[in-house]
Amino acid sequence: MNFINDPNFKHSFIKDVVRIDYRTEVPLQCINDYGYSYIMFRFGKFEAYDYQNAPIEIPKVFVKGTGDFFKVKAYKNSTWLSVELPNHCLHNITNRIAKKCRNQLIDLYDYIDPSILDQLYYEIFDLTDISSITQTLDKHLHQFYGEWNKNLDSTLLVNYIYKRKGLLAVSELSDRFPFSERSIERMFYREVGSSPYRFICLVRFNFIIRELEQQNYSSLDELISKYNYYDHSHFVKDFKKFLGQSIHIYKNDFNPLLSSALSREYNKM
């Protein structure tokens, strides 16, 4: 598996671009949610299964928002190109209620002129450096960036949750921003794709698992306390919720896809 990205990636809209080339067949690997939206390009043969192990159809170009973990099996000589976008982009691209799009890979051809996507799809396949890939994305999609990146009511709240590393209660959002807790619930249902509580837990988990992956702690109990978990069992429940496995299996399971993802910077503001 060849994992291509640019650690110094900068763009006015796109958060990150990653290309993964599979030289050999790779068994099912878990992909967790990071709270972003994605446009993804599939080249070759893949199989995908949701958190309930139900098969998922994979369009050749799709958009995905916040959801549960899923698993992907890649076949030899296949390629996966991931374009990471701000959370609000799923709602802006589709104009659909984000919660109803959970765990769906939504065909981007339903929202963009097929001739534009066809040209982009075939041009981008042979590009193996992030700069050229990004320039090609810009060439074909820049006309949509303004609408896709339009801030929503949830945008400031989501950015604040990232800034706080998920170390806050839902009530802090209504204290800090001019929305009631009930309004925030409805807002997140419509624009984010999860409840505010779950999104807060998701962001916190993504920060703690990076420290776990990088072994940036002296003891697990210290790490659990740092991220305001009640106790070890509380952390174990989040592990199962967001990765579908125990900590023991995670530590003993070879998952280069997840390890590569966790090595990248989280929350690129």
TrEMBL record:
Pfam families: HTH_18. Residues 150-253 form the HTH araC/xylS-type domain. InterPro entries: HTH_AraC (IPR018060). This is HTH araC/xylS-type domain-containing protein. The lineage of its organism: Bacteria, Pseudomonadati, Bacteroidota, Flavobacteriia, Flavobacteriales.
